[in-house]
Amino acid sequence: MKVLTVKNLNIEFGGTKVIEDLSFDVEKGEVLAVIGPNGAGKTVLIKSLIGLIPHRGEITWVPGIKTGYVPQRMDIETDVPLTVREFFRLRGPEATDKRIAEKLEFVQLDLEILRKGFGEISVGQRQRVLVAWAVLGDPDVLIFDEPTADIDIAGQESVYKMLYHLQKNIGLTVIIVSHDLNVVYRHAQTVLCLNRKNLCFGAPKEVLSSEQLLALYGGEGAFFDHRHET
Amino acid sequence: MENIVLPMIVAAFVAASASLLGSFAILKRMALVGDALSHVALPGMALALLFQFNPFIGAVAFLFVTVVGIWVIEYRSSLSLDTIVGVFFTASLAAGALVMPEHDLIEALFGNITDLSMAESVFSITLSVLLIILILAIYKKLTLNMVSEEIAQSIGIKNKRLEFIYLLAFALGVALGIRFVGALLMGSLVIIPAASAKNIARSLRSFMTGSVVFGVAAASTGIYISHLYAMTPGPIFIMISSGIFITTLIIRQLRRPRSGRAS
User: What is the pTM assigned to this prediction?
Assistant: First the structure.
């Protein structure tokens, strides 16, 4: 079953085309990875999917579907007067202590973190808090705009493990912007290569040929195609 | 003594609503916009005095137009809000000062709450209470909007509408406070208590409570002292507020020597 169909999506900023004639769809329960070089329009695409950016073309979600969204980065002051517990509570009445504890366990964070300031926890911790926050609404689809350099490798690994776990156990559909092809090969069923247009779409092993990567990233293709088994 | 009890109560309510509104201006990092916005009320009050209608209505009308302007600029144009505010708002203060009848100018600039009529007092208290109720009803959404518009949008919050409601409330709060501290100092009534609370608060709850407590304390003490020494209450209020701010700043520095921003 398709949960999302995108048809002929076009987005412009001040006359510059950022997304051009993009079409793809997402099946229920799959992990779709969106890859592409910097400035390819990945974050723009994600934001248009949740209705933040005006666009031409069709973005059709299955009726009644619930999406959770994890932003790429947040510009937060370290001394913002907001505790992590209060940040959860901003969601409304569904954020009960019991449910918050449940979701924190999902993302492997201690209950201790609830008392800390939202601005003083590490970027990696905040990323997980944001995932927990997003899944607190029991979404059918999690849209995850991956942070790039802000998070260390170990932190990233555990976030992927957690996403994989969520997808496997509760049938969550995941749309993830990823910068790590290794992750794409291991966790995604489908990959969308984006560089303003749809350059490739399909199973990673089938569509991610060296030529494709070269076309997508230009000369950098060789650099990105590194698989390291861990 | 009796004749200052009512002004003290009015000032406390006006300060409570202004500080509560201010806490969100601080969270949104629009302290400067909030401050300068109050200047726009002056030409409205001047016109009201010239054509002999209630200056409050003049102030509200001008603030309303400005708030709509701010909202449109934020969403529709690529102009920097800071630049617009810096030029346009200060210009309207100047224009207001020119048009304003001279004998009313000092009061419009620095305020005077002690000669409020009973009806005006009741009106100010009622409007303050309504503003407080409004803010408390939407504070969770407001905070989320200020932490991340994207996340707010993702759970169905209508950001634009929410910001518009907040700006309108802000405009009403400013119009109310102008009677107390005047167009020149109004920004401080909104900003300083919240800024002081932010120095020492770690949670949203203590931030909002602290802001209101500081605002109310400074406002009522300000009126009392100004009465004792027969001075204009507005500037006294600001001096007390600034004292609180400096105290909280020292406490903050003692508590955590490092500060900065993370992303």
Answer: 0.84
